[in-house]
Each structure stands twice: as C-alpha cells, then as structure tokens.
TrEMBL record:
Keyword Lyase applies: yes
Gene name of this polypeptide: purE
Entries under InterPro entries matching the protein: PurE_ClassI, PurE_dom, PurE_prokaryotes
UniProt binding sites for substrate: 12, 15, 42
Catalytic activity: 5-carboxyamino-1-(5-phospho-D-ribosyl)imidazole + H(+) = 5-amino-1-(5-phospho-D-ribosyl)imidazole-4-carboxylate
Keywords: Isomerase, Lyase, Purine biosynthesis
The protein's name in its UniProt record: N5-carboxyaminoimidazole ribonucleotide mutase
Lineage, top ranks: Bacteria, Bacillati, Cyanobacteriota, Cyanophyceae, Oscillatoriophycideae
HAMAP family recorded: PurE_classI (MF_01929)
Residues in PurE domain copies: 4-153
Gene3D superfamilies xrefs: 3.40.50.1970
Pathway in which the depicted protein is active: Purine metabolism; IMP biosynthesis via de novo pathway; 5-amino-1-(5-phospho-D-ribosyl)imidazole-4-carboxylate from 5-amino-1-(5-phospho-D-ribosyl)imidazole (N5-CAIR route): step 2/2
The protein's enzyme class: isomerase
Length: 162
C-alpha cells in the first residue's frame, strides 16, 4: 500500500521543523504520507483544492499545522469530510497561545482535533490510531509502541533504584 494515507500540511516552510515529528511517527509506523505547504491566506485557492481532493487521492486523515492566526486547520476541516488534526505551531510573540486558541476554538459543527502547542508527535500518533480503527495490524503496532513506552519508564525507575 504505497498510496499516501495521511496528509501532512502546514502554512509555511517555517512550520516544518515542528511538523517533522508527525512525519517521523508516520515513517516509524510505515504509513505513506504526503507533505505539502498549503497556506490559508497566501494560497487560499490551493488550500481549497487540497482539502476538496484529499479524500479522492486516498488520504484518510489530515494533519494541519499553522501558527499565529492559524485558520488553516479549521478552513481545511470545513472543506473535507476527513478527520483533521490541528497542530498549533509556537510563535515568537505569543509562544503559540495564539495558534492554540485559533485552532482549538472551533464552533460546533466542524471539529478539529487539536494537540498541544508544538506537539506534532501526538498528531502523528493520533492519525495512526485513527487508521488503526480499521487496520488491526496497525492497532497491534500501537499496542506494542505503548508497551515500549511503559518499558522505558520501568527501565528509568530501575536505574533510579540502583
Ligand atoms: C502561518 O504563519 C504559518 O503557519 C507560520 O506558522 C506563520 C509564519 O509564517 P512565515 O512568515 O514564517 O512564513 O501562516
């Protein structure tokens, strides 16, 4: 299955260092992704085109990262039937609180699942879990990942106890 399953978009290439964590998670779980710079205000027509066609290309979940007046995730969510996960990107002046509020405060009817400021890793994991709902082998891999997380905590405890 080489067709991209998860679309990872961001408002600017300056968001890429943050969004790399989502890309890395998808790579770890061997899920093909498509990555694109799509700006709601600089390339509005491209955003509409992207959002309206993603599901036709086989994309199942969209992760959208943006900073400042971060309307990209909400606008994309309004244009696609796919689940959208928003990543508030940290900003220089307001440290991403502006991005968080812009993304998380969606009025009822058009949901955006919002992760913590800068936490693209959790966006990637949530997207994998959404795919896992209909792919048992992926669900098993998520469970193994959680077991590894637990093991790493116990290992650290072991070192503390030494
Ligand atoms: C938003 O404006 C982007 O998502 C980015 O976080 C922010 C700043 O963009 P640049 O000025 O760095 O291109 O659209």
């Amino acid at each position: 299955m080489n067709e991209p399953q998860i679309g990872i978009i961001m408002g600017s290439d300056s968001d890429l260092p943050t969004m790399q964590a989502a890309i890395a998670v998808c790579e770890d779980f061997e899920i093909p992704v498509e990555v694109a710079i799509v700006s709601a205000h600089r390339t509005p027509n491209r955003m509409v085109e992207y959002a309206q066609t993603a599901h036709h290309r086989g994309i199942k979940v969209i992760i959208a990262g943006a900073g400042g007046a971060a309307h990209l995730p909400g606008m994309v969510a309004s244009l696609t039937p796919l689940p959208v996960i928003g990543v508030p990107v940290a900003t220089r002046h307001l440290q991403g609180v502006d991005s968080l509020y812009s993304i998380v405060q969606m009025p009822g009817g058009i949901p955006v699942a919002t992760v913590a400021i800068g936490n693209a890793k959790n966006a990637g994991l949530l997207a994998v879990q959404i795919l896992g709902a209909t792919r048992p082998e992926l669900r098993d891999r998520v469970e193994r990942y959680r077991e590894q997380l637990a093991a790493s905590v116990l290992e650290k405890q072991g070192r503390l106890d030494e």
